[in-house]
Design a protein that fits this description.
Elements (H helix, E strand, L loop, with lengths): L2 E4 L2 E4 L6 E4 L13 E4 L5 H9 L5 E4 L17 H11 L6 E4 L13 H33 L3 E6 L12 H20 L5 E7 L7 H5 L12 H11 L5 E3 L2 H12 L2 H13 L5
Helix pairs in contact: 1-6, 2-3, 3-4
Length: 276
C-alpha cells in the first residue's frame, strides 16, 4: 500500500489508489461542513488550498498527476479510461462534496494547439461534466436521506467571461464550464445541493509557467489560500463567484466595452510575451 505526504504528515492510501486524509487548518471563516470531499488536481495550487481550508472533520479523497506529491493512482483525467475508473470508485464512496479543480492551459496561437488542446478540452470541460453527471445523483440521494446538503465546485476562470487571444482554447473551455455550471445550479435550485462556478484570476501557482506563458503573476494576483477561502464562503450563496474585487470590476467592464476593443487589447498584450 502506497503512502502519501501532505502538509508534512505521512498518511496511508486506500486500496483504490486514491489518497484519504484529514484536512488541514480551516479558513478564517468557518466553512460549511461536509463529511467527505473528492478533490481533483489536489497536489498543488488551488486544489491543495481547498483541501487545507476544509474543516479537520472532512475526510479527503485527493487525486492528481504529481505522483511525487501524491503517491497514488496517478489520475490523468484527460483520458476517458481514468475518468471512468475514478467514477467507478467514487460512486460507491460517501462523498458529499465534489471539487473539479484539475485543468491546464496552453499559451500560443489557436491553430497550433493540436493534441494538447484536445487533451485540454477533455480535462477542463468534459471531465468535470462527466464526474458531476455520474456522481451528483448519488450525492443528492444521500443528502435527501440525511437532511444534509451536498456541494459541487467547478473551478473555472475569469477568462471564461470573454475570448482571450493566445489562450483561445483555454478561455473557451472555461466559458463552457461557467455556463454549464450556472445552468446546472438553476436546474437544481430546489434540491439539497449547492453548486458553484469558481472564477479566479491570476493566482500564484505554476499554471502560467506550465502553460508556456512567460509573464508570471504580479500585481493583482492572489494566493491559492485566498481563492480557497472565497470559494468556501461563496458556496451556497451564489452560483458564480469571481475572486477579488479587481477581477469583478474587470469582468463587469468587459461586458460593456466594445468586443473589438477588448479583443485588440488582449491580443496585443499577449502577443508581446515570448512563449517559453
Amino acid at each position: 500500500m502506497a503512502g502519501i505526504i501532505r502538509m508534512g504528515v505521512a498518511m496511508s492510501t486506500a486500496g483504490t489508489g486514491l489518497g484519504q486524509a484529514a484536512a488541514g487548518p480551516a479558513a478564517t471563516k468557518e466553512p460549511m461542513r461536509f463529511e467527505a470531499a473528492l478533490i481533483t488536481g489536489a497536489t498543488s495550487g488551488i486544489g491543495e488550498a481547498i483541501a487545507r481550508a476544509l474543516p479537520a472533520t472532512t475526510a479527503l479523497w485527493l487525486t492528481g498527476r504529481d505522483v511525487s506529491r501524491l503517491a497514488t493512482f496517478a489520475a490523468d483525467l484527460a483520458t476517458r479510461g481514468e475518468q471512468d475508473a475514478m467514477i467507478a470508485w467514487a460512486a460507491a464512496a460517501p462523498i458529499d462534496l465534489l471539487v473539479n479543480n484539475a485543468g491546464f492551459g496552453r499559451f500560443g496561437p489557436a491553430l497550433e494547439g493540436g493534441e494538447r488542446d484536445r487533451a485540454m478540452i477533455e480535462l477542463n470541460l468534459l471531465a468535470p461534466m462527466a464526474l458531476a453527471q455520474a456522481l451528483l445523483p448519488g450525492m443528492l440521494e444521500a443528502a435527501r436521506a440525511t437532511g444534509r446538503r451536498a456541494g459541487l465546485i467547478n473551478v473555472a476562470s475569469v477568462v471564461g467571461f470573454f475570448p482571450w487571444p493566445y489562450f483561445a482554447a483555454y478561455a473557451a473551455s472555461k466559458a463552457f464550464l461557467v455556463s454549464w455550471t450556472e445552468a446546472l445550479a438553476a436546474e437544481l435550485r430546489d434540491d439539497p445541493v449547492d453548486v458553484l462556478a469558481l472564477c479566479p484570476g491570476a493566482t500564484t501557482t505554476k499554471f502560467l509557467e506550465r502553460a508556456g506563458y512567460a509573464g508570471m503573476p504580479g500585481w493583482g494576483s492572489h494566493l491559492p489560500d485566498r481563492v480557497a477561502q472565497e470559494a468556501l464562503e461563496a458556496l451556497g450563496r451564489r452560483p458564480v463567484h469571481v475572486v477579488g474585487t479587481t477581477n469583478r470590476i474587470a469582468v463587469a467592464a468587459m461586458r460593456y466595452l466594445p468586443r473589438w476593443l477588448t479583443m485588440r487589447g488582449t491580443a496585443r498584450a499577449t502577443a508581446r510575451i515570448d512563449r517559453r
